[in-house]
Amino acid sequence: MRQPQTLLITGGAGFIGSCFVRQCAARGQKVIVLDKLTYAGHRENLDGVACELVEGDICDGALVSQLLSRHGVDAVVHFAAESHVDNSIHSPSEFIQTNIQGSYTMLEAARHYWNGLSGAAKNDFMFIQISTDEVYGSLGETGKFSETTAMKPNSPYSASKAAGDHLARAWFETYKLPTIITNCTNNYGPRQHPEKLIPLMITNALQGKPLPVYGDGKNIRDWIHVEDHCHGVYLALCQGEAGQTYCFGGDAERKNNEVVNAICDTLQALVPPASGHYSDQITFVQDRAGHDRRYAIDDSKAQSELGFTRAHNFESGLRATVEWYLENGAWCESIRQKKAA
User: Pick the catalytic residue: 74, 82, 134, 292?
Assistant: First the structure.
């Protein structure tokens, strides 16, 4: 079992990355965060966390190499990515640059660094490529994605993430760089950017704005709490086999309109409006181009080989998430202003 003491975490000021950083820091590990601090990465997400935050680009190979060598890094956990599907449809070039070129740069820097190691340091080094279930495309009414599902990405975002996964696999097969790929379903929890479904619905509802739901609202997603996802990634880092892929799901398939109505009901109970119901604000809008109908993950491999379990169920996790956003309105406003700027 590997026990990395010094980690380089890319995208560690983002939603999922900052959760992982917090978990590592709580274990007493040394964490170096490399984050470009775009609209989706925020210093505030790491307030009070013992880590070194380096503002920089994963496409800067010299910087990445310097950080690896200077800190004697034991493992790289590569969260950094452009991740919003709508943005990828309108501006795909940024996704190609970050998710493909950036992943290539990270892998090459890690390869050269790893080649210079010896003994236990070399044997225990690991590169974790964090990815998404969206690389697998869209499911029908039955079945689930697993590690053996063929990739069929349908958006510029998912295609760029699939390319990064292919690169990580190729660097293992060709250069023997120890890499692991993790694919996860939709995350939710504190500190998620308000452009994503759950925080968007919470913040819009509180401001009296429309709650936009794509198409007929019946697209299905499997939801996992961000803390459970990060726990799974750490299990893969410590116990996973190089060259393998591990999928993490939430066992919580919900239609989008079910999620939105659950948010409305939770808000109605916690902060009822002067009149009416938050669900009155739901508005169905034109469907997203190439909108995948259903995602679901079979994570039995992670359960059997890594001992992966989930600590959160969707209903209580969603309520806790709504409560966090109610208590952190200033955070949401500062994030919105940063994107607008």
Answer: 134
Q: What's the token pair of residue 167?
A: 């690169």
Query: Both tokens of residue 309?
Result: 């379990």
d(CA 46, CA 191): 10
**Does the residue 261 lie in any domain?**
no
Annotation marks residue 173 as catalytic:
no
Residue 301: give its domain's CATH number.
3.40.50.720
Find the catalytic residue in 133, 222, 228, 299.
133
Q: Is residue 206 part of a domain?
A: no
Domains contained in the chain, number: 1
DSSP codes, 234-245: HHHHHHPPTT-E
Average pLDDT for the chain: 94
H/E stretch holding 76: strand 75-78
Q: Is residue 122's pLDDT more than 90? A: yes
pLDDT at 290 (0 to 100): 81
Q: Containing domain of residue 178, as a range?
A: 6-189+225-252+291-312
Closest CA to 270 of 322, 315, 225, 210: 322
Element (H, E) at 181: strand 179-184
The percentage of residues in the chain with a pLDDT greater than 70, rounded to a whole number, is: 98
The residue annotated as part of the active site, out of 136, 157, 234, 325, is 157
AA letter at 82: E
Q: Is residue 72 part of a domain?
A: yes
State the CB neighbour count (10 A cutoff) for residue 133. 26
Residue-level pLDDT at 338? 67
Respond yes or no: is residue 315 known to be catalytic: no
Residue keyed to tokens 């004697």: 72
Average pLDDT over residues 200-221: 94
Q: What is the Cα–Cα distance from 275 to 160, expressed in whole angstroms?
A: 45
What is the mean pLDDT of the segment spanning 319-327?
95
d(CA 340, CA 334): 10
Tell me whether residue 233 is in a domain.
yes
